[in-house]
């Protein structure tokens, strides 16, 4: 079968060399990467990934000067966040490409070719890249010893050519990770996502929709020709949109095979939150779980009734069911 956040605020940025129990900041960040921010599905601050939170009381009005100051600070935070996001995505792609040669990857290479003048944020960048690799691409970033700044990637996925031999997406793999990312975006956006939002999410992951990717092939073709045709995704034009826009929603196969609670759990795990952090989606997922349980109970009851009917028929005819 098939298999990230409230992130309006910037993640906590740890400077290189921070200590925790004798470990340097980089080792700490990797060892505690379950606590690092990982905004794979993150929207710009303020959008809350479509998490439909209940409205609270209105904030008191600010003086114009104070409002301008807050707006300038928020704009600076957004720029810093977007730059950090781009660096993480670039590092993920750099590590994936380097791993094709199966040679260890050094921290100095990461800084030289990707991180650059954000060297002080290396622990945070590397930890977030490790999260992306783990949850989306199925790779573990392993440091070769606590004192060494050398890494390897451990591939926990089937080779792509083996996956292509499968009749569907069952069993896992990079395509499954991509599909779950899209389903998560759709769910957190209110059960539909504009086509442009899906392509933007891929770009934030460092994946260009129309450019060949060694794990996904051509991502746009994979989505439009495989996911849509196999009914994992539905694709339609947005009614009355001008200029015309199209959107994705869950397809009937996803509705049958994938529970909303599992997708919400996936998003929550990547955000380091509990599913209850998004109350509207959580209630919807609970209702979906209850519907699935009732449908399963009805199916089991129907099977038992048919079995009893067959048994009675054989008894009436005097035929042993064995």
Automatic annotation (TrEMBL):
Extract one GO cellular component term from the record: nucleus
Signal peptide range equals none
Domain MAGE, which positions? 84-285
Disordered: region residues: 1-62
Among Gene3D superfamilies, the record links this protein to:
MAGE homology domain, winged helix WH1 motif, MAGE homology domain, winged helix WH2 motif
Keywords assigned by UniProt, alphabetized: Tumor antigen, Ubl conjugation pathway
Q: SMART domains in the record, alphabetically? A: MAGE
Q: Where is the composition biased (Basic and acidic residues)?
A: 15-26, 45-56
InterPro entries the UniProt entry points to: MAGE (IPR037445), MAGE_WH1 (IPR041898), MAGE_WH2 (IPR041899), MHD_dom (IPR002190)
Name used for this protein in its record: MAGE family member F1
The protein's organism comes out as Canis lupus familiaris (Dog)
